[in-house]
Amino acid sequence: MARVVLHQWEISPYCGKVRKILRLKGIAYDVQNYNGLRAPKAAALTTAGKLPVLDWDGEWIADSTAIAVFLDQRQPLPALYPADPRDAAMARMLEDWADESLYYFAMFFRVQYDDAMSRSVALLCEGRPAWERPVFRPIFSRMIRRKLREHGFSGRTREQIEADFVRHLDDLETVLSGCDWLVGDSQSIADIAVSAQIDEVVRTSHLAGRIRSLPGISKWLARMAG
C-alpha cells in the first residue's frame, strides 16, 4: 500500500478539496501542516512553491487539480469525473469556477473583516508559539490582499463584493433544488471543489448563517461532510 502524505494548510480550500478526494476514495494518508512562520518551508517542496502538495510513495504532485487527476488515475473508483462527456465537461467547468472565482471571495472575507481575520490567523497558527500570531497576521494580510488586487477585487466596496457572492449562493441554491449533486447522479469533482470553497467561508466568515439558511446548500454541505 502506498504511503501518502498531504502537505497542507488546514484552512486552504484547495487542501480541503484534496482531503475530500482522499476521503471519497478511501485512501489513508498522513498530514504535514505548515502553520504560522513555518509556511515559507512549503515553497521548497516543489517548483510551484504552493500547497497542497501530495507525496505518493515519493512521487510529488502539486496543485489540487493535478492531484485530483493523479488520484483518479491511481484509484479510478469512485470516479471524480462523470462518465457522460457532457457531464464531465460541466464538472470540470464548475471545478474551475470554484478554484478561480469562489476562492477569491473566500479570501476577501478573511482579510476584510476583523473577526474573520482573527479566526483565520488563529487557525493558521494553531500548534505554533503564541508570539508568532502578531508577526504572521500582517504577512498573511499582505499576501492575500496582493492576490485580490491582481484578481481585480480592488475598487469595489465590501457591500458590492458581498452582494456578488450572495448571487453566487442563490445560483448554487437553484442548481441544488430538487437534486443531490451539482452534476449527474453522484458526487463528482464539481461537488468537491465547490463545497471546499464554501466550507471555508462557513468556517471563518460572518456569512456562515446566511449559507446555512439555504436548505439546498445546507443539506448538500452535510452530504459532502458525511
How is this structure best summarized?
The chain has 226 residues and is of the alpha+beta class. Helices cover 58% and strands 8% of the residues. It has nine helices and four strands.
Element layout with pairings:
Layout: E1 4-8, H1 13-24, E2 30-33, E3 53-56, E4 59-62, H2 64-74, H3 85-112, H4 114-124, H5 132-150, H6 158-176, H7 189-204, H8 208-212, H9 215-225
Helix pairs in contact: 1-2, 1-7, 3-4, 3-5, 3-6, 3-7, 4-5, 6-9
Structural class: alpha+beta
Query: Could you say which overall geometry the principal axes of the C-alpha atoms support?
Result: globular
Main sheet record:
4 strands, mixed
Number of helices: 9
Helix content: 55-70%
Please, how many domains?
2
Give the SSE order as H and E letters. EHEEEHHHHHHHH
Could you tell me the strand content as a percent range? 5-15%
Radius of gyration: 17 Å
Name of the CATH first level of the largest domain: Mainly Alpha
